[in-house]
Protein backbone atom coordinates (compact mmCIF):
# COMPACT_ATOMS: atom_id res chain seq x y z
CA UNK A 1 0.00 0.00 0.00
CA UNK A 2 1.49 3.34 -0.99
CA UNK A 3 1.54 6.31 1.41
CA UNK A 4 -1.32 8.12 -0.31
CA UNK A 5 -3.64 5.14 0.01
CA UNK A 6 -2.48 4.55 3.59
CA UNK A 7 -3.38 8.09 4.67
CA UNK A 8 -6.71 7.89 2.80
CA UNK A 9 -7.62 4.75 4.79
CA UNK A 10 -6.57 6.40 8.07
CA UNK A 11 -8.66 9.49 7.31
CA UNK A 12 -11.64 7.32 6.45
CA UNK A 13 -11.31 5.40 9.71
CA UNK A 14 -11.12 8.65 11.68
CA UNK A 15 -14.31 9.91 10.02
CA UNK A 16 -16.09 6.62 10.68
CA UNK A 17 -15.00 6.70 14.32
CA UNK A 18 -16.15 10.28 14.74
CA UNK A 19 -19.50 9.54 13.11
CA UNK A 20 -20.05 6.60 15.46
CA UNK A 21 -19.24 8.79 18.43
CA UNK A 22 -21.66 11.46 17.20
CA UNK A 23 -24.59 9.09 16.80
CA UNK A 24 -27.13 9.72 19.56
CA UNK A 25 -25.08 12.49 21.13
CA UNK A 26 -26.07 16.03 21.92
CA UNK A 27 -24.36 19.36 22.16
CA UNK A 28 -25.27 21.16 25.36
CA UNK A 29 -24.28 24.49 26.79
CA UNK A 30 -25.18 27.95 27.97
CA UNK A 31 -25.02 31.37 26.32
CA UNK A 32 -23.92 34.40 28.34
CA UNK A 33 -23.14 38.06 27.80
CA UNK A 34 -19.34 38.42 27.51
CA UNK A 35 -19.27 41.52 29.74
CA UNK A 36 -21.95 40.96 32.39
CA UNK A 37 -21.80 37.12 32.34
CA UNK A 38 -25.59 37.18 32.54
CA UNK A 39 -27.54 34.41 30.79
CA UNK A 40 -28.87 35.14 27.32
CA UNK A 41 -32.38 33.87 26.66
CA UNK A 42 -33.64 33.00 23.17
CA UNK A 43 -30.32 33.02 21.32
CA UNK A 44 -30.56 31.42 17.87
CA UNK A 45 -28.43 28.31 17.36
CA UNK A 46 -28.24 26.86 13.88
CA UNK A 47 -26.08 24.59 11.74
CA UNK A 48 -24.96 26.58 8.69
CA UNK A 49 -26.99 25.80 5.53
CA UNK A 50 -29.19 23.40 7.46
CA UNK A 51 -32.61 23.33 9.11
CA UNK A 52 -30.97 21.83 12.21
CA UNK A 53 -31.18 24.28 15.09
CA UNK A 54 -32.79 25.48 18.30
CA UNK A 55 -32.83 28.46 20.66
CA UNK A 56 -31.71 28.90 24.26
CA UNK A 57 -34.30 28.73 27.00
CA UNK A 58 -35.08 31.43 29.57
CA UNK A 59 -31.91 30.57 31.50
CA UNK A 60 -29.63 30.64 28.45
CA UNK A 61 -29.28 26.84 28.23
CA UNK A 62 -29.64 24.76 25.07
CA UNK A 63 -29.53 21.20 23.79
CA UNK A 64 -28.80 20.51 20.11
CA UNK A 65 -29.15 17.03 18.63
CA UNK A 66 -25.99 16.29 16.63
CA UNK A 67 -26.71 12.93 14.97
CA UNK A 68 -24.99 12.65 11.58
CA UNK A 69 -23.32 16.05 11.75
CA UNK A 70 -19.83 16.23 10.23
CA UNK A 71 -17.06 17.32 12.61
CA UNK A 72 -16.33 20.33 10.40
CA UNK A 73 -19.97 21.49 10.35
CA UNK A 74 -20.29 25.03 11.65
CA UNK A 75 -22.77 26.13 14.29
CA UNK A 76 -23.75 29.80 14.39
CA UNK A 77 -24.86 31.48 17.61
CA UNK A 78 -26.69 34.73 16.94
CA UNK A 79 -29.16 37.19 18.39
CA UNK A 80 -30.24 40.73 17.59
CA UNK A 81 -27.98 43.16 19.44
CA UNK A 82 -24.98 40.79 19.59
CA UNK A 83 -22.11 39.81 17.30
CA UNK A 84 -22.65 36.28 15.95
CA UNK A 85 -20.16 33.51 16.69
CA UNK A 86 -19.22 30.50 14.55
CA UNK A 87 -17.96 27.31 16.21
CA UNK A 88 -17.13 23.86 14.77
CA UNK A 89 -19.13 20.86 15.94
CA UNK A 90 -15.87 19.14 16.91
CA UNK A 91 -15.13 21.94 19.39
CA UNK A 92 -18.44 21.50 21.20
CA UNK A 93 -19.18 17.78 21.34
CA UNK A 94 -18.81 16.23 24.77
CA UNK A 95 -18.03 19.56 26.44
CA UNK A 96 -19.84 21.53 29.11
CA UNK A 97 -19.98 24.56 26.83
CA UNK A 98 -20.23 28.11 28.05
CA UNK A 99 -20.35 30.46 25.08
CA UNK A 100 -20.08 34.22 25.41
CA UNK A 101 -21.47 36.71 22.90
CA UNK A 102 -20.28 40.31 22.62
CA UNK A 103 -22.74 43.15 22.25
CA UNK A 104 -22.78 44.72 18.81
CA UNK A 105 -22.06 48.42 18.48
CA UNK A 106 -24.26 50.43 16.15
CA UNK A 107 -23.45 53.72 14.49
CA UNK A 108 -26.78 55.50 14.28
CA UNK A 109 -27.03 58.22 11.68
CA UNK A 110 -29.24 61.14 12.62
CA UNK A 111 -32.46 60.96 10.64
CA UNK A 112 -34.50 64.10 10.15
CA UNK A 113 -38.02 63.27 9.02
CA UNK A 114 -40.71 65.74 8.07
CA UNK A 115 -43.97 63.92 8.69
CA UNK A 116 -46.91 64.65 6.39
CA UNK A 117 -49.29 63.58 9.13
CA UNK A 118 -50.54 60.67 7.03
CA UNK A 119 -50.93 57.03 8.09
CA UNK A 120 -51.54 53.94 6.02
CA UNK A 121 -51.53 50.16 6.16
CA UNK A 122 -48.81 48.19 4.39
CA UNK A 123 -48.96 44.43 4.01
CA UNK A 124 -51.79 41.89 3.90
CA UNK A 125 -54.91 43.13 5.66
CA UNK A 126 -57.50 41.37 3.51
CA UNK A 127 -57.39 37.60 3.88
CA UNK A 128 -59.42 34.50 3.10
CA UNK A 129 -60.63 31.94 5.61
CA UNK A 130 -59.82 29.21 3.08
CA UNK A 131 -56.02 29.54 3.12
CA UNK A 132 -53.86 29.16 6.21
CA UNK A 133 -50.22 28.79 7.25
CA UNK A 134 -48.53 28.28 10.59
CA UNK A 135 -46.74 25.96 12.97
CA UNK A 136 -47.49 22.95 15.14
CA UNK A 137 -46.26 21.21 18.26
CA UNK A 138 -44.65 22.84 21.27
CA UNK A 139 -40.88 22.70 20.61
CA UNK A 140 -40.54 21.56 17.00
CA UNK A 141 -40.77 25.04 15.45
CA UNK A 142 -38.17 26.83 17.60
CA UNK A 143 -36.43 29.41 15.44
CA UNK A 144 -38.76 28.90 12.47
CA UNK A 145 -39.94 32.06 10.70
CA UNK A 146 -42.72 33.21 8.43
CA UNK A 147 -43.24 36.64 6.96
CA UNK A 148 -43.92 38.79 3.93
CA UNK A 149 -42.51 41.55 1.78
CA UNK A 150 -43.47 45.14 2.64
CA UNK A 151 -43.17 47.88 0.04
CA UNK A 152 -42.75 51.01 2.16
CA UNK A 153 -41.70 53.49 -0.53
CA UNK A 154 -38.62 55.65 -1.02
CA UNK A 155 -39.23 57.97 1.95
CA UNK A 156 -38.48 57.07 5.58
CA UNK A 157 -41.57 55.97 7.53
CA UNK A 158 -42.23 55.09 11.15
CA UNK A 159 -43.83 51.75 12.02
CA UNK A 160 -46.58 52.28 14.59
CA UNK A 161 -47.85 48.72 15.04
CA UNK A 162 -47.85 45.23 13.61
CA UNK A 163 -51.07 43.27 13.10
CA UNK A 164 -51.52 39.53 12.67
CA UNK A 165 -54.63 37.55 11.67
CA UNK A 166 -54.99 34.39 13.76
CA UNK A 167 -57.20 31.78 12.10
CA UNK A 168 -57.01 29.47 15.10
CA UNK A 169 -54.53 28.60 17.84
CA UNK A 170 -54.28 25.86 20.45
CA UNK A 171 -52.14 27.74 22.96
CA UNK A 172 -52.91 30.23 25.67
CA UNK A 173 -50.05 32.38 24.31
CA UNK A 174 -47.42 32.11 21.61
CA UNK A 175 -44.25 34.17 22.07
CA UNK A 176 -42.63 35.31 18.80
CA UNK A 177 -39.70 37.57 17.92
CA UNK A 178 -40.12 40.32 15.33
CA UNK A 179 -37.62 40.67 12.49
CA UNK A 180 -37.34 43.38 9.84
CA UNK A 181 -34.67 42.76 7.21
CA UNK A 182 -33.46 44.41 4.05
CA UNK A 183 -33.63 42.50 0.76
CA UNK A 184 -30.75 41.32 -1.41
CA UNK A 185 -31.52 39.54 -4.68
CA UNK A 186 -35.04 38.94 -3.41
CA UNK A 187 -33.86 37.19 -0.21
CA UNK A 188 -33.96 38.58 3.36
CA UNK A 189 -30.53 39.99 4.20
CA UNK A 190 -29.43 42.44 6.90
CA UNK A 191 -31.38 42.73 10.15
CA UNK A 192 -32.63 46.30 10.51
CA UNK A 193 -33.67 46.06 14.17
CA UNK A 194 -30.99 46.61 16.81
CA UNK A 195 -32.96 45.25 19.76
CA UNK A 196 -35.11 42.20 20.38
CA UNK A 197 -38.83 42.85 20.14
CA UNK A 198 -40.91 40.01 21.55
CA UNK A 199 -44.64 39.73 20.89
CA UNK A 200 -47.22 37.67 22.74
CA UNK A 201 -49.96 36.37 20.46
CA UNK A 202 -52.82 35.55 22.80
CA UNK A 203 -55.84 35.70 20.51
CA UNK A 204 -57.47 32.36 19.77
CA UNK A 205 -59.00 33.85 16.63
CA UNK A 206 -59.10 37.18 14.82
CA UNK A 207 -56.83 40.18 14.36
CA UNK A 208 -54.34 41.11 17.07
CA UNK A 209 -52.54 44.45 17.04
CA UNK A 210 -49.24 45.07 18.83
CA UNK A 211 -48.06 48.66 19.39
CA UNK A 212 -44.49 49.41 18.26
CA UNK A 213 -44.30 53.23 18.49
CA UNK A 214 -42.05 53.14 21.57
CA UNK A 215 -39.31 51.38 19.56
CA UNK A 216 -39.04 54.26 17.08
CA UNK A 217 -38.59 51.96 14.06
CA UNK A 218 -37.68 54.10 11.03
CA UNK A 219 -37.29 52.30 7.70
CA UNK A 220 -37.79 52.77 3.98
CA UNK A 221 -37.80 50.82 0.75
CA UNK A 222 -38.70 47.15 0.39
CA UNK A 223 -38.18 45.01 3.50
CA UNK A 224 -39.22 41.62 4.84
CA UNK A 225 -41.15 41.50 8.10
CA UNK A 226 -41.22 38.10 9.78
CA UNK A 227 -42.25 36.40 13.02
CA UNK A 228 -39.99 33.82 14.66
CA UNK A 229 -41.38 31.09 16.93
CA UNK A 230 -39.86 31.34 20.41
CA UNK A 231 -42.13 29.57 22.89
CA UNK A 232 -45.69 28.23 23.20
CA UNK A 233 -47.36 28.35 26.59
CA UNK A 234 -50.20 26.20 27.93
CA UNK A 235 -51.70 23.91 25.31
CA UNK A 236 -55.50 24.03 25.45
CA UNK A 237 -56.51 20.51 24.45
CA UNK A 238 -60.02 21.40 23.27
CA UNK A 239 -58.43 23.77 20.74
CA UNK A 240 -56.34 21.04 19.07
CA UNK A 241 -56.54 21.30 15.29
CA UNK A 242 -56.92 18.66 12.58
CA UNK A 243 -55.53 19.60 9.15
CA UNK A 244 -54.96 17.96 5.76
CA UNK A 245 -57.43 15.17 6.48
CA UNK A 246 -55.35 13.72 9.33
CA UNK A 247 -57.19 11.77 12.04
CA UNK A 248 -55.31 13.18 15.02
CA UNK A 249 -55.84 16.72 16.21
CA UNK A 250 -52.66 18.37 17.48
CA UNK A 251 -51.74 21.78 18.97
CA UNK A 252 -51.06 24.41 16.31
CA UNK A 253 -51.26 28.08 15.50
CA UNK A 254 -52.61 28.96 12.07
CA UNK A 255 -52.68 32.34 10.36
CA UNK A 256 -54.96 33.35 7.51
CA UNK A 257 -53.35 34.14 4.18
CA UNK A 258 -54.10 35.95 0.95
CA UNK A 259 -53.50 33.27 -1.67
CA UNK A 260 -53.67 35.62 -4.64
CA UNK A 261 -51.01 38.28 -4.06
CA UNK A 262 -47.94 39.23 -2.08
CA UNK A 263 -44.62 37.47 -1.45
CA UNK A 264 -44.42 34.87 1.32
CA UNK A 265 -41.13 34.00 3.09
CA UNK A 266 -40.55 30.98 5.32
CA UNK A 267 -37.57 29.14 6.75
CA UNK A 268 -37.22 26.19 9.10
CA UNK A 269 -34.44 27.42 11.37
CA UNK A 270 -32.12 30.38 11.86
CA UNK A 271 -29.52 29.07 9.36
CA UNK A 272 -31.87 27.34 6.92
CA UNK A 273 -32.41 28.54 3.36
CA UNK A 274 -35.36 30.85 2.77
CA UNK A 275 -38.32 29.58 0.77
CA UNK A 276 -39.95 32.31 -1.32
CA UNK A 277 -43.51 32.00 -2.64
CA UNK A 278 -44.91 34.66 -4.94
CA UNK A 279 -48.65 35.24 -5.16
CA UNK A 280 -49.27 34.44 -1.49
CA UNK A 281 -48.80 36.18 1.84
CA UNK A 282 -49.75 35.68 5.50
CA UNK A 283 -52.22 37.98 7.26
CA UNK A 284 -49.63 40.47 8.49
CA UNK A 285 -49.53 44.21 8.06
CA UNK A 286 -48.09 47.31 9.68
CA UNK A 287 -49.53 50.77 10.20
CA UNK A 288 -47.04 53.48 9.29
CA UNK A 289 -46.72 57.24 9.68
CA UNK A 290 -45.21 59.18 6.79
What topology emerges from the helices and strands here?
Elements: H1 3-22, E1 26-33, E2 44-47, E3 53-55, E4 61-65, E5 74-78, E6 85-88, E7 97-101, E8 119-123, E9 128-136, E10 145-151, E11 157-169, E12 171-184, E13 187-191, E14 198-201, E15 206-211, E16 218-219, E17 222-235, E18 252-258, E19 263-267, E20 275-278, E21 281-282, E22 284-289
Parallel strand pairs: 1-7
Antiparallel strand pairs: 1-4, 2-3, 2-5, 5-6, 8-22, 9-18, 10-17, 10-19, 11-15, 11-16, 11-18, 11-22, 12-13, 12-14, 12-17, 18-21, 19-20
- CATH names the topology of the largest domain as Jelly Rolls
In the residues, how many domains can be counted?
Answer: 2
The share of residues in helices is: under 10%
Find the structural class using helix and strand composition: mainly beta
- Number of helices, counting only DSSP H or I runs of 4 residues or more: 1
Shape: globular
Largest sheet: 8 strands, antiparallel
What gap, in angstroms, lies between the N and C termini? Answer: 75 Å
- Average pLDDT taken over every residue: 89
Descriptive overview:
With 290 residues, this protein is mostly beta strands. It folds into 2 domains: 9-101, Carboxypeptidase-like, regulatory domain (Immunoglobulin-like, Sandwich), CATH 2.60.40; 119-289, Jelly Rolls. It is 7% helix and 47% strand. The protein is built from 1 helix and 22 strands. It has one helix at residues 3-22; strands at residues 26-33, 44-47, 53-55, 61-65, 74-78, 85-88, 97-101, 119-123, 128-136, 145-151, 157-169, 171-184, 187-191, 198-201, 206-211, 218-219, 222-235, 252-258, 263-267, 275-278, 281-282, 284-289. Strands 8, 9, 11, 15, 16, 18, 21 and 22 form an 8-stranded antiparallel beta sheet that branches. Strands 10, 12, 13, 14, 17, 19 and 20 form a 7-stranded antiparallel beta sheet that branches. β5 (74-78) and β6 form a beta hairpin. It is globular. Residues 9-23 have low confidence and may be disordered.
